[in-house]
Amino acid sequence: MTITQLSTFLKIAEQNSFSAAADSLGYAQSTVTTQIKQLEEELGCQLFDRLGKTIVLTPQGEKLIAYAEKMLQLEREIHLEISDEEEPTGVLKIGVSESLCYSRVPEALMKYRKEIPGIDIRLVFITHDTFPDMLQKGELDLVYTLNPYMEDDRLTMLYKKEETLGFYASPDHQLVGKKIKEKDLADYPLLLTGHNCSFRHMLMEDLAKCGVEAKSLIETSSKEILKQFASNGLGIAFIPDMTATREVENGSLKKLDWRGSSFPIYSQIFVHKDKHISKAISSLVEVIE
Question: Residue 151 — very low, low, confident or very high, per pLDDT cuts 50/70/90?
Fold first, then answer.
């Protein structure tokens, strides 16, 4: 079997379609079909059930996914580590939280590319509840996330920095300039991140403890939408401070003077606990630090 065959297999499994996988990989569909046929012949089993126009992984195909992901991860590590060049080359797959992409990630990657130009960076947006499994499966080499402090036996933390959350509203909002606590939010619509976001969970749990029922106008994973709604006077946005720097500077948003509970969050870098810390990874962590 070849890395190419395994990569094609994973793409088909991801997209549930031979034709879609062929388009994504830039192959003719006949090439994809041949690769999978050769792989099935070598393994002596069928990897997909073809049910009309629908394909479904067989039990053997389900088992192969974990091994194929590990093989591709090892291939990336080989390219990163085994080279005649002094500087590492290859692909580094990084999972990032959206909030960190407003300034932190672009600045870090620009500096990193100057220092190690041979590394091809591939970014994937992640959520708090999914990235540990993605590291476990080898889908990502490293994760740079913004979340409450977390511990996971499957992961190793390489970096941690305390960050802050804040409440933001339009400059003419009634609460601007006042010292506010949980009870003061009861009469105003809140602009919150989505249901699977840890920031939202922290706030909702705090309000519930204080007996405050939140008026939620909109919930979305997009901080840009939350900021736009807040600047238009449609509510109070609860977002990481790092995502609102530009709006505070240009005067379109004001940070409210919050005197209620604290909401501790951290920017954190994780890898799988068994992950080899290559020069490509350690150099990126140094740049972020």
Answer: confident
- Residue 265 identity: I
Q: Is the dihedral of CA 120, 124, 129, 134 positive or negative?
A: negative
User: pLDDT tens digits for 224-277?
Assistant: 999 999 999 999 999 999 999 999 999 999 999 999 999 999 999 999 988 888
Q: What is the pLDDT of residues 177-196, one digit of tens each?
A: 999 999 999 999 999 988 77
| pLDDT digit string, tens, across residues 10-40 | 999 988 889 899 998 899 989 999 999 999 9
Cβ within 8 Å of residue 51, ≥6 positions away: none
Q: What confidence score (pLDDT) does residue 143 get?
A: 96
